[in-house]
Amino acid sequence: MSDTLVLEGIDKGYNRGKSGEVMVLRGASLRLAPGEVVALVAPSGAGKSTLLHIAGLLDQADAGTVTYGGRAMGGLSDRERTAARRGEVGFVYQFHHLLPEFTALENIVLPQLAHGVPKAQAEARGRDLLGRVGVLDRAGHRPAELSGGQQQRVAFCRALANGPKLLLADEPTGNLDPENAAHVFAVLMEIVRETGLSALIATHNMEMAARMDRQLRLDQGRIV
Q1: Nearest Cα residue to 201 out of 28, 53, 40
Q2: Which of 8, 57, 188, 223 is most exposed, with the fewest beta carbons within 10 Å of its own?
Q3: Contacting residues for 29 by C-beta, under 8 A, at least 6 apart
Q4: CB-CB contact of 151 with 53 (8 Å)
Q5: Where's the ABC transporter domain (predicted)?
Q6: Which residue has the higher pLDDT, 185 or 41?
Q7: Residues 203, 204, 208, 209: is their CA dihedral positive or negative?
Q8: Residues 126, 102, 92, CA angle at the centre, nearest 5°?
Q9: Alpha-carbon separation of residue 185 from 18, 65, 190, 208 (angstroms)
Q10: pTM of the model
Q11: What is the CATH topology of the domain spanning 35-46+78-218?
Q12: What is the secondary structure of 59-114 as a DSSP string?
């Protein structure tokens, strides 16, 4: 079986004007097997978010390759990249980015409708996920009516709504208290084991990182 995600020799730099180009990633490479949960650990500003954006086809590397399940993602059109991202990847960010005019349940249903899932099925999936993370009683509330921790748990459900093969998470429990962080992480691990989902999780939480299958460290643009 092919690896869910392969990054090979990823370079990424940004032009800082008079300061010249700053290289954020230098030959970064990693492999993620089906059902594997891997921690990506690095200090702030080390390039974790950049790496996740390239892995999730939100940004393009200056050099190197991104492969999903044995299929190279290089050379795809914008439409093809969007289709691959929508079908293969779920994202969780430290800041949830929920749609403010929609309820918690609607925020989980909408990505499924865009993917062609019937509304009744999408709502059932949404309620199941909300129940798993302990916020089903808030299904009819808009984001402004939810606490930060509740919003983050809804964002986590939204990322899983379409049954992605790859979950990319950028400090996903950064806004949660320790009890809720532990609960959300336990749900994630349960879903990974059930479905074979692969997850790459950038985190500063070393206790959480220690509970994952592997830990990778980003050091001067390289993964070690």
Answers
A1: 40
A2: 8
A3: 7, 8, 9, 10, 64, 223
A4: no
A5: 5-224
A6: 41
A7: positive
A8: 60
A9: 43, 30, 9, 8
A10: 0.87
A11: Rossmann fold (3.40.50)
A12: S--SEEEEEETTEE-TT--HHHHHHHHHHHEEEE-SS----TTS-HHHHHHHHHHH
Closest CA to 90 of 164, 155, 35, 156: 164
Residue recorded with tokens 């989980």: 108
Label residue 156 exposed, middle or buried (CB < 10 Å: 0-12, 13-18, 19+): buried
* Of 143 and 1, more confident: 143
- Separation of alpha carbons 149 and 172, rounded Å: 10
Closest to 30 measured CA to CA, from 60, 54, 58, 59: 54
Residues in the chain: 224
b vs e for 80-106, b when ≥16 Cβ sit within 10 Å of the residue's Cβ?
ebeebbeebbbbbbbebebeeeebbbb
Rounded to an integer, what distance in angstroms lies between the CA atom of residue 47 and that of residue 143? Answer: 29
Domain ranges of the chain: 35-46+78-218
